[in-house]
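--- STAGE predict ---
source: upstream dedup step, 1 unique chain passed
mode: sequence only
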Amino acid sequence: MRLTRTPRAAALCAAALLLASACDSAGPGGSPATGLNPPDLKAPTKLGRTEGRVNLIAWAGYVEDGSDDPGADWVSGFEKRTGCQVRSKVAASSDEMVKLMKTGEYDAVSASGDASLRLIASGDAAPVNTDLVPHYKEVFSGLKNGAWNSVEGRMYGIPHGRGANLLMYDTAKVSPAPTSWSAVFDDADRYKGHVTAYDSPIYIADAALYLKAARPELGIKDPYALDQRQFDAAVALLKKQNADVGEYWSDYLKEVSAFKSGDSVIGTTWQVIAGLAASEGAKVKTLVPKEGSTGWSDTWMVSSKAAHPNCAYKWLDWIVSPEVNAQVAEYFGEAPANSRACAHTRDKDFCTVYHAADENYWKRIAFWNTPIEQCLDGRRDVKCVPYARWVRAWTEIKG
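--- STAGE serialize ---
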């Protein structure tokens, strides 16, 4: 299992500026949910003969052919069944995915919510015809028509999996047990030097989510739709928190090590990290605090310039099929997208631990989305702070 969602600062600004320029032109006719007015691209009405090849961009652990781990191979079966030879490139960040998709050299990408709107707005991702993906009908309803993967009811990809950004704490060193994100924000000085936080500009949304409940006078409705006043409040909170943070993490192995050694005792995590830490002796527990949590939902999107669209559609259906989706979810450490996948996991408790079928649980998760000037919460009387400025602010927050 290899997890990589690491931001690369050098690429962030350029990619974010591309987003800003792509979305500035959106007018009143855009989606009422996002304000986007993407290019009028057409989805195919039927599939033709497969082209013999498909070029993919993916998170590490999503496209496995057995070469890294003999026990993880869902590519060979796909190639045998379809005749489409898979060529994949692992991306280290959402920003790298956006950059690579612009080259036109790739047919599909496993985009997270902090990249998908960029790809839609710029016209690099095409809408998909879900009727051409038979297994789409088995996808959990909570993953369909999301603010991060659709515009005006048109899906721009096939959901792959989802995960929550949880609060993890050392049960021997944190007492009483926390129930709120205040433990790492307003009350973080109790654990000075031993607080950990996710190293990415998108973490600003975590502060905004907390402030939505802690300071209702700010009027925050969506942690990814922040006007200047709301954004300034979130940034101020994170600058205050910085004095108590011992380490910002992006490498999950480092977080496991920090909790085992006691260098970290409380902070943001993923379920798979918590499981690994506990299996290696760390006394940790996790929770979704009372304010809810942020999280991610990944979507396989097809390039508008795909040279192998028929093989790409075959891949979309394959990767979300019950057996394969179960394999990927267990290997990567996330809840599967296919509602029938849980019957195929090797660990029969896996879907319970990851809350795969618990839609009430996921209603508490604010999935990553891309901040744009057209406020994602529907406001039209103010401008929201776009992602390019989140990137600059994150550099200032960390000092």
